[in-house]
Amino acid sequence: MKILVCLKKTLDYNVNPQIAPDQQSIVETGVKMSTNPFCEIALEAAIQLHENNPTIETHALCIGPESHQDILKRALAMGAHHAHLLKCEHPLSTLEKAQLLKTYIENHPYDLVLMGKQSIDQDHNHIPQMLGALLNWDTGLFCSKIMLNNDHLTVEREIDEGLCQRNIKLPCILSSDLRLNQPRFISLPKIIQAKNKPVAIIQADSLLKGTGPKLTRTKLELPPARKKGTTTNDLSEFLSQLKEVLK
Amino acid sequence: MSKFHIIITPQTNESQLINALACAASKMGATAIDGIYIKRLQDPGLKPILSNINHITTYEISQSTSITAQQVMEVLGNIPALDSLITISNTLSKEWLPAFAALNNIMPITDVIDIKNQTFKRPIFAGNLIETLENNQERALISIRPQFFKAPTNPSNTSFSNVSFSPKNTSSESLLSTDISDLPDLLTAKKVVSGGRGLGSKDNFVKIHQLAKQLNAAVGASRAAVDLGYISNEHQVGQTGKIIAPDIYIAFGISGAIQHLAGIKDSGIIIAVNKDPDAPIFEFADIGYVGDLFEVIHALMT
Ligand SMILES: Cc1cc2nc3c(=O)[nH]c(=O)nc-3n(C[C@H](O)[C@H](O)[C@H](O)COP(=O)(O)OP(=O)(O)OC[C@H]3O[C@@H](n4cnc5c(N)ncnc54)[C@H](O)[C@@H]3O)c2cc1C
C-alpha cells in the first residue's frame, strides 16, 4: 500500500502575519516558516500506519518553489520514505493545486492520500474535497481517528453536530483534524541524516492547464481591532458590571 | 439576467439563516432569489420566511441519518442554469461546496464576511487579516458566515414546491456522540458561556453547563478543554472549531490564544475570568476579572 501525504509550507503558527507594502501579499522574508500544523498531523498519521504495517510506503509531496524542499527533508527526517516536490514558482489556487494533484496521482497511483484539513494561512479547507471529487474517490474529512482494516478504513470525523464514524473504501482521501495525533519530536541526528536523502523534483508547470486567474486578491487589511477593556480584581465590582451586562 | 440560488440544509434557526443568505444575495445584486431546501424525511420543513425569496423548492431525502455531500451534489445537478449559489459555512457545506466547485471548474469563495457585487471579503490567518477577492468567473459559489449578514426582514411572497428525491449515492454514517441538550445552539446563541483548561476537570466543567443553563446561554470551549475530554468537540470555538459572534461571550479559564480569539472576535461584549493578570485574553476582553473562576461561578449561581 502506498500513502501520499501532501504538505504545505506556511508561516509558523506563532508568527503574526504582516502585510507587505504592496497591500496584497504577506511578508515572508526573515519570518519563520514551517510545515502547516494540519499537514504535519497527516504525516504523523501516515508514519504511524506504516510503523504498524511494514508493507506500507509513505511518500511526502509539496507543491511550491525549490525553497520548499526543506519541509520535505523534515518529512524524511520524521519518517517518510520518499519525497517529491511538484516545482512551481508562482502561487496556485486551491483548485489548481487539486487539478495538479489529480494529474500527478493518475500517473503515480496511490491507495491513500492524507492531507491537513486546512492551511493556517489561507484557512480554505478546499483541496481534499476538490481532489476527492476530481478523482471520484471516497473522501473522509476532518478525521480525528483513522483505523486501517483489511480492505477499508474506519474513520471518526469531527463535524458541527459532534463526532461521527464511517467506513471508507480504498483508494480514498482523508483530511486530518488537530485531535488525530500529536506529531513526534524529530531528533537532530535524524534531521542531519535526512539532509542527504534525495527529493525528486517534478516540473509542475507542464502539468498545469493555464487559464487566467479566477479570483484576484485586490487588498489585504487588518480587521477592526477590539479595544482593550477594563480589568479588576475586585469580585463585587466585577459581579455588578457583569449583572449590568446580563440584564 | 443571472439566476441566484441560496441553499440550506436543516439547522436550528433556519429562518434567520435564510435571511442572512438572502441579504448576501442582494449584496451581489440579486433581485430574484430561488431557494433550495434539502430536508430529511422527519424534518418538519420550512416555516414562512421573511425575505425577498421568490420560490423555495424542497428536496426531501428519503434517508434518515444525515445528508451527504454526494446527495447535495445530486440535487444541484438537477438545477438548470445555475449561476450563483450561496450557502452557509458549516462542516456540511465545507464538504460539498469545494467538491461541487471542482467538478464545475469553479473557484469557490468560502467563509465570506462581506460582499459588494463581485467583490468578496474573507478572513485569513485565523482572522488576523482580511483579504478582498474579485471574482473573475461568470458564476459564483459562495459560503457565508451568517452573523455578518443581518438583513431587515421584508414580508415574503415565497411560494413552495416539494420534490421527493431518492439519491443514488447513500453513504451510511453514524453519529457517535452528540450533546443533545435543551441549551441554545452555539452558532446562533445570543449568549455563550465558555470554559478552558482552567476548569481543571470534566466534573468541574459541569459548572459551565449549569451556569449556561441558568443564563439561557450556549456552552463553548477552548481546544484544550476538548482535548482534555472535558467536553465534546462540537463545542470548540476558534480557528478550527466554530466561529461565533454572540452578543455576550463569557470565558472562564481560557488564556486567549489567537486561534481561540479567531472564533470570538466579532462578539458583542467579551467577558473574561482568569487568575493570570497577563493572560492575553485581557487584551481584547471588554470586562475582565483577575481571580479564581470558581468563585465567580459560585457567586453567579447563588
Ligand atoms: C493550528 C492550531 C489551531 C488551533 N485551533 C484552536 C481552536 O479552534 N480553538 C482553541 O480554543 N484553540 C485552538 N488552538 C490551541 C490554542 O493555541 C491554545 O492552545 C488553546 O486555545 C488553549 O486553551 P486554554 O485557553 O483553555 O488553555 P491554556 O492556554 O492552558 O489556558 C488556561 C488558562 O486558565 C487559567 N486558569 C487556570 N486555573 C484558573 C482558575 N482557577 N481561575 C481562573 N483562571 C484559571 C490560566 O491562567 C490560563 O490562562 C489551536 C492551535 C493550533 C496550533
Global Rg of chain A: 21 Å
CATH topology of the largest domain in chain B: Rossmann fold
User: Percent range for helical residues of chain A?
Assistant: 25-40%
Name the CATH superfamily classification of the largest domain in chain B. Answer: HUPs
Q: What does the oligomeric state look like here?
A: heterodimer
The number of helical elements of chain B comes to: 7
Physical arrangement of strands within the biggest beta sheet of chain A: 9-8-7-10-6-1-4-5-11
CATH class of chain A: Alpha Beta
The CATH superfamily of chain A bears the name HUPs
The number of helical runs of chain A is 6
> What is the string of SSEs of chain A from the N terminus onward?
EEEHEHEHEHEEEEHEEEH
In the residues of chain B, how many domains can be counted?
A: 2
Bound molecules: flavin-adenine dinucleotide
How much helicity do the residues of chain B have?
A: 10-25%
Low-confidence stretches of chain B: none
- Major sheet of chain B, described briefly? 7 strands, parallel
- Write down the overall mean pLDDT of chain A: 95
What is the succession of H and E elements of chain B? Answer: EHEEHEHEEEEEEEEHEHEHEEH
Structural write-up:
The complex is a heterodimer of chains A (247) and B (302). Chain A is of the alpha/beta class. In chain A, 28% of the residues lie in helices and 31% in strands. Chain A has helices at residues 37-52, 69-78, 94-107, 127-135, 188-194, 235-246; strands at 2-7, 9-11, 33-35, 57-64, 82-87, 112-116, 138-148, 152-159, 162-169, 172-176, 200-203, 215-221, 230-232. In chain A, the strands form 2 sheets. Chain A has a 9-stranded mixed beta sheet with strand order 9-8-7-10-6-1-4-5-11. In chain A, strands 2-3 form a two-stranded antiparallel ribbon. Chain A is globular and about 65 Å long. The mean pLDDT of chain A is 95. With 302 residues, chain B is of the alpha/beta class. Chain B has helices spanning 14-27, 69-77, 91-103, 202-215, 223-227, 258-261, 293-301, and strands at 4-8, 33-40, 55-61, 84-88, 109-112, 114-116, 119-124, 129-135, 140-144, 159-165, 174-177, 191-195, 218-221, 248-252, 269-274, 287-290. In chain B, strands 5-9-4-1-2-3-10 form a 7-stranded parallel beta sheet, sandwiched between helices. The longest helix of chain B is centred in the first third of the chain and has 14 residues, at 14-27. The mean pLDDT of chain B is 88. The complex binds flavin-adenine dinucleotide. Flavin-adenine dinucleotide sits between chains B (196-198, 222-225, 236-241, 253-255, 257, 259-260, 263, 273-276, 279, 292-294) and A (13, 37, 120, 178).
